[in-house]
Amino acid sequence: MRAADPAWHDSRWRSAIRRGLLKWFAANARELPWRSDPTPYHVWVSEIMLQQTQVATVIDYFRRFTAAYPTIADLAAADEQQLMRLWEGLGYYRRARSLHAAAKLIVERHDGRFPDDYEAVLALPGIGRYTAGAILSISGDQRLPVLEGNTVRVFSRWGGFRGDVATTAAKATLWEIATAMLPQRGAGRFNQAAMELGALVCKPKAPSCDRCPVSAFCHAHRLGLEDEIPGRVTRITYSSRIEFGFVVPIIGQDRYLVCRVPTGERWAGLWDFPRWTAGDTDSSAIAAERLSEQLGSEVRPVSALTTIRHAVTRYRITLEVHRAAAIAADSVKLPADNYRLLSRDQLGELPLSVTGRKIARLLDETSAGET
Ligand code: SF4
Fold first, then answer.
1. pLDDT of residue 368
2. Is residue 238 within 8 Å of 311, Cβ to Cβ?
3. S-S: 142 plus which of 136, 255, 258, 281, CB 3.0-4.6 Å?
4. 230 C-alpha to center of ligand 1: Å?
5. Closest among 199, 187, 51 to 131, alpha carbons compared
6. Annotated catalytic residue, options 31, 47, 176, 349
């Protein structure tokens, strides 16, 4: 190796890191439900759930999901509403729809068996380079790299790579490091170990270098640059907005109006209490008026029910929820597929948006308090 060569060009350095890392992983790997039986299906479901979601949250969802759909064929045949109900609370619902669509394709094109060809896996909906590499390396030990939040940080620090990891050039370098680091055999184990080190030891803030198995070889640590590497990741700038939700009872019945969230909107395919999301007014009366035009039925707020604050993508949203005056059951002019009039019990069976579920629970509590 020449003096100016980056660390990852040095095979002895790579071997030393691998040895330290794998020994540490053998003693410290967490027991996770998808690790005990790492079939392609299990790894696939877990990797999709783990995108944007913490391990601790995913564990129960994974167990319930694989109990409901033990095979790819079961998932392909799933009822979409039941699937969304199982996914409810995990967020990023496009992931669930992609899993469903991909399962159907696997049944059609691959006889229900998860393909072991990299290009065929990449051709499935919702699966990119990272996920394909994770599935095939972990379940079939194919020599494929993985690059996600944890490994971007770990590889950057090991190699003392200071580039801005958001750039295309930096990403290319990181894929090169990820590939160079792979052992000839046991790539899946190596990938899991590198991700685990990032999750447990080499954390974004204040990494635990004093108990790191590879600190002697880590360039960021040697140079005291742990806090500066990886280079700046663009932060999301949030903007605030007010939205309005309305609990609309049906005259003479213990039922409420809920609407299906249209395609292209946040929480598309889930159900929600009528909600004005345009963020173009801070008046509940104006929001109710505009919503009335959409529904073809008058929404008239009568009292404030609650305020829910939450963040979605780049918005910090304040949702003002109002009770509205009761309407006649036949007054809604939406197409029949897009709305339902449901009792509180029936709301429990339908996949609702995060805030829709909060409102439904509030209705239960309020009604329990009244009895
Ligand atoms: S020594 Fe510190 S910065 Fe380097 S890999 Fe270990 S925990 Fe991360």
1. 59
2. yes
3. 136
4. 11
5. 51
6. 47
Query: CB of 160 within 8 A of CB of 221?
Result: no
**Span(s) in the chain for CATH 1.10.340.30:** 7-204+218-222
> Given ligand 1 and candidates 8, 25, 150, 201, which is best to mutate, with the most ligand atoms within 8 Å of its CB?
201
Residue 198 alpha carbon to ligand 1 centre in Å: 9
Query: Distance (Å, rounded) from C-alpha 109 to C-alpha 120?
Result: 10
Fold of 7-204+218-222: Endonuclease III; domain 1 (1.10.340)
Contact in structure between 271 and 80 (CB atoms under 8 Å): no
The strand order across the sheet containing 239-247 reads: 275-276, 239-247, 315-324, 301-312
Where do you find CATH 3.90.79.10 in the chain? 239-370
Complete DSSP assignment for 259-304: EEPPTTSTTTTSEES-EE-S---S-HHHHHHHHHHHHTS---EEEE
pLDDT digits (tens, 9 = 90+) for 289-337: 999 999 989 999 999 999 999 888 788 999 999 999 999 999 989 888 8
User: Among 226, 227, 228, 229, which is best to mutate for testing ligand 1, by the most ligand atoms less than 8 A from CB?
Assistant: 226
pLDDT for 107 equals 98
Which residues of the chain are under the pLDDT cut of 50?
A: 1-3, 371
Taking CA atoms only, the protein residue closest to ligand 1 atom 8 is 202
pLDDT computed for residue 370 by the predictor: 52
Q: Answer for the pair 192, 29: CB distance below 8 angstroms, yes or no.
A: yes
Counting from 1 in the atom list of ligand 1, the atom nearest the Cα of 219 is: 4
> Which atom of ligand 1 sits closest to the CA of residue 212?
6
Q: Report CA(20)–ligand 1 centroid distance (Å).
A: 12
Q: Which class would CATH give 239-370?
A: alpha beta
For residue 17 and ligand 1, the question of a CB distance below 6 A is answered with: no
As a whole number of angstroms, the distance between CA 208 and CA 160 comes to 17
**pLDDT for 185:** 95
Q: Does the annotation count 176 as an active-site position? A: no
pLDDT at residue 319, as a whole number: 95
- At 371 the pLDDT is 44
